[in-house]
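CHAIN AND CONFORMATION:

***
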Amino acid sequence: MSGWLFHRIGKQVEKLKHQTKCTRCDLYFQKNLSECNHCSHLADSELAALISQRKNFRMSLGKAMLFGAVLFLLATFFLAKIFNST
């Protein structure tokens, strides 16, 4: 498993070498492009909507992960209690 993880990290590092971070939207785009393909065609109001949408997605993903972790811990606790009582 760790071999796969190191391989995956290496691929991500190699991918980032060929990308640059946009100062306008903070997303990455290929260095061979002259401008960001995510936000160069957007007006300022549309850019604000894009940034807000990304922020809301990250927040909802974090809440879902927290909810999943709490459910996992509760299930583990109850299963351990059931199997220890028998």
In short: The two ends are 35 Å apart (CA to CA). The mean pLDDT is 88.
